[in-house]
Specification:
Elements: H1 12-25, H2 30-44, H3 47-58, H4 67-80, H5 84-97, H6 102-114, H7 118-133, H8 147-160, H9 166-174, H10 181-184, H11 189-192, H12 198-218, E1 225-229, H13 232-241, H14 252-268, E2 274-278, H15 281-290, H16 300-310, E3 315-317
Parallel strand pairs: 1-2
Antiparallel strand pairs: 2-3
Helix pairs in contact: 1-2, 2-3, 3-4, 4-5, 4-6, 6-7, 6-8, 7-8, 8-9
Amino acid sequence: MRPDTPAENVDHAAEAARLRRIADLYPEDAEALLLRAAAHLELSGDRPAAAALYDRLLSSPGSLENPCLVRALKASNLWEYGHEAEARAIIEGIRSAAPRDPAPWVIVAESLESHDELEAAHETFTEGVELLLKDSTDATDPPYDTHPLLFGRHRVRRMLGAGHDAWDLLADTLHTSPVSLDELHDPKRVWSLGSENPDELAAEITRLRAELGAYRAALSRPFPVAVLHWPKAELTELLASYPELTAEYPSHEIHLATTEASLRELASSGTSNLGIVTGTVPSYEAFAASEGASPSDATLLPQYATTLAARGRAVAWPPQRGAECWCGSGRTYGECHGTADPSGTL
């Protein structure tokens, strides 16, 4: 996720350098950290340096969690500083690879859209939607991360003057802003910005505020507020080595129930962008050593969770519909901790 801070308030080059240093310290997190560093470099205007970071990641594709995402970001960046032919070739390769992750589809389609390739953008959005949602178990409630595909497709079709189809109607249903998608995506809006009519200008300001509010809600923090989860084997090893932490973790079952309860409490208080980070004993011991503290100090635990989240290790909570539960039981979240009384499933 790209930083949501105005460029004039952030030294993006310095932030990119800091993230690259962290990536050298934590190579297992290099993908997430270097992608954030590349985003800062793009915001600073140093697009060749950002391309070099994408190339660094792609030089070892076997270790990447999402190589198509890295390629999509590289293509978008290349096109912005004059490498159109290479960008187009990468985009075609991504479309041929048909990734099952929505993010690469959104990035390449928006890149095409931003360069006035509306027909190609529409084709790309549609390919992604049909690939990822045609077999959806609940067509009325698709996974959250596919919503940008539907919204982007709706926007491009509006620009092309196409009538609503079933996917557009679904996008309208999913959109929760007080300003409808048809208004947000109205091609005539650009003309209203140059109007001398104060009523038209006021209406456009209202629409822009609605859009900005949605973006700010999505980008409210650079990383999630995360709760720490220990798999059973790791917790057993942790308590065997540091029995002082038994007060924090009386049993694995209680730990799981407490984790879910903490997340629900945060959500009910209005906290968004929640996640879960999974701890390991070696990682925790290394963190304690870096802090000059004993791993038996319970006050380190929330700091450790925040550090893992900052390194891109958080998994979003709650899981998407039909996804496996975060606890590792193998059951879906709805059948496990996603029930009304999650403690009853333990």
